[in-house]
Automatic annotation (TrEMBL), chain A:
GO terms for cellular component: blood microparticle; haptoglobin-hemoglobin complex; hemoglobin complex. Residues 1-130 form the Globin domain. One of its GO terms (biological process) is hydrogen peroxide catabolic process. This is Hemoglobin subunit rho.
TrEMBL record, chain B:
Belongs to the globin family. PANTHER family: HEMOGLOBIN FAMILY MEMBER (PTHR11442), HEMOGLOBIN SUBUNIT ZETA (PTHR11442:SF41). One of its GO terms (molecular function) is haptoglobin binding. This is Hemoglobin subunit pi. Involved in oxygen transport from the lung to the various peripheral tissues. Residues 2-142 form the Globin domain. The lineage of its organism: Eukaryota, Metazoa, Chordata, Craniata, Vertebrata. Keywords: Heme, Iron, Metal-binding, Oxygen transport, Transport. PROSITE patterns: GLOBIN. It comes from the Eukaryota. GO terms for cellular component: blood microparticle; haptoglobin-hemoglobin complex; hemoglobin complex. The keyword Transferase does not apply.
Length: 130, 142
């Protein structure tokens, strides 16, 4: 569990580095000019923690993620205007960070479970879009 | 999409390590693909897809060999994979969406085996490289 909490905040900087167009949502975050800048950026780090907390809520309410994320979904659609494809991208980055962290323990079966989880989370976040 | 010199170097550097166990990583990537995305199994009704099967290992080998060729000719991936491109367009006709899925699983396997080498920059380079390979393999589809 502790290791997973470390992986989630690591995913956001990696998303911004691997898919630089995702930086479009973070114009006010300051210096995102290089991988080093992104990794050291305090706003990125803070946002990573926010995402972690929110993800934790989903995991705690796995039987009702849609309800748990209802307001967050509204927010991402109406205020943040985030294309839901980005939720998929972040989920996949998280999976790769987990793979690097857990190495051989991150078996295909383990990955399959996590792919389902990030899929459920992404779906719930996109659910209220209109 | 073209790879920068730095990106090409990152791809080549990691490939040097992956090549030492290419077959295993290939088989593992396919296992990940079939576990996480069961719909991809529809392309292999004729295969024994159980873990460790000879067919899985053989096919994983094939995939990794092709990637190795692309790395060797990283300045002309299109030329290196021309025949494979035709094979996928006219015979195999694997839906393009599946190339992203397999690429993702290959990245997972590489990350799991070489975590300290798989820095964000190396990850970005490999994602771009596999994207390039996928593009070449689907460019003759129509």
């Amino acid at each position: 569990r502790v290791c997973v909490s470390a992986c989630i905040p690591l995913s956001l900087p990696r998303l911004l580095i691997v898919y630089p167009w995702t930086q479009r949502f973070f114009d006010n975050f300051g210096n995102l000019s290089s991988p080093t800048a992104i990794i050291g950026n305090p706003k990125v780090r803070a946002h990573g923690k926010k995402v972690l907390t929110s993800f934790g809520e989903a995991v705690k309410n796995l039987d009702n993620v849609k309800a748990t994320y209802s307001k967050l979904s509204d927010l991402h659609c109406e205020k943040l205007h985030v294309d839901p494809e980005n939720f998929r991208l972040l989920g996949d980055i998280l999976i790769i960070v987990l793979a690097a962290h857990f190495t051989k323990d991150f078996t295909p079966a383990c990955q399959a479970t996590w792919q389902k989880l990030v899929g459920v989370v992404a779906h719930a976040l996109a659910y209220k879009y209109h | 999409m073209t790879l920068t010199q730095a990106e090409k170097a990152a791809v080549v550097a990691i490939w040097a390590k992956v090549a030492t166990q290419a077959d295993a990583i290939g088989a593992e990537s396919l296992e990940r693909l079939f576990s996480s995305y069961p719909q991809t199994k529809t392309y292999f009704p004729h295969f024994d897809l159980s873990q460790g099967s000879a067919q899985l290992r053989g096919h994983g080998s094939k995939v990794m060999n092709a990637i190795g060729e692309a790395v060797k000719h990283i300045d002309d991936i299109r030329g290196a994979l021309a025949k494979l491109s035709e094979l996928h367009a006219y015979i195999l006709r694997v839906d393009p969406v599946n190339f992203k899925l397999l690429s993702h699983c290959i990245l997972c396997s590489v990350a799991a085996h070489y975590p300290s080498d798989f820095t964000p920059e190396a990850h970005a380079a490999w994602d771009k490289f596999l994207s390039s390979v996928s593009s070449v393999l689907t460019e003759k589809y129509r």
